[in-house]
Amino acid sequence: MRERQDKRGLRRYRNTLFTIGLVAMVTFLAACSNSDGGAKTAGASAAATSGGAAKVQPPAVINYGYIGTNKLNFPGGAEGWGLYKGIIQEELKKYGITEIKPVAFPNGPDQSESLISGRLDFGSLGDTPALLARSTGAKTKAITLNTTDNIGYLIGKKGGPTTIADLKGKTIAIQKGSFMHRYIAGLVKEQNVPDVKFIHMLRPDGEAALARGEVDAMTNSAIFALKQIENGFPLIDDASKHPNLIGGSVTVVSEDYLKKFPDFAKVWNGAREKALKDLQSKPDEYYQFLSQLNGFTPELNKKVTPIEAIKTVNFTDDGVKLLEGTKKFLVDEKLAEKDFDLSQWLLK
To answer: Which helix (H) or strand (E) holds 111?
Structure first.
């Protein structure tokens, strides 16, 4: 009997030793992981600060949206120039971002949809589509006010309307949700023109429909509108005559991405400022770059999109006033789904 008890005690002792040994081995392996692989992870995703807190390391790849398509796959402005010259890439590399992927979109609403769905991290677009997206609850922050003088043009078909009053009962092709949509909606209301029908068409489709006489007029942006005017299409009106209907452009970033990189706004605007200073020192080269993007002459680009129009100071009082006025119009006209606090959207 005593021999069986001793054997049972020995088995329990051996089991206890095995359990202790197993726990020790797991602890040892975990310690090895933290001291080796953990160090690699820390180097790739977080670094200890002097206070012991972790510094967030952003993902290595960032997806950037812009409006317009071209063979170089860059936008214009300081953003496009910085990407074209590699200035922005060099700045972002300092923070672990090794690749920035530009993605072109035909209009702002399409870009906003991609940002909301998570396919983009941030993007530059017209103020109207950015504000409309935010009004639907899109979790974005505006980090840059790129321009504040986007002019919408109203171009008529040949032999068609030539004055705003002539638009009564006519059909106008617009890009729904764009800054030009805001311009024409405001113009029709301001001039009290009844029975105007708006139909959504992207710019190439609208230009083709206008040339065939299938629509009476269309809205267009500066450089493309000037080309139509050169080709004999009548200019009915443009937003330069209505300062309250001028548009702007902004850069917005998803709140999800800001959680990964809280300092992104400061870093991006710093890189943009460096690119802007560079292009300001090389105006002829910059206008030649724009010519490669849109196929128009450097002279026409200089006339339509002068370097001086690119904002150097972010979110000026006048710029914020323009955004507030645009938002109010969109809300009042029920184009925006709901109102929101602009100051909570702007990340200054």
So the answer is: helix 108-117
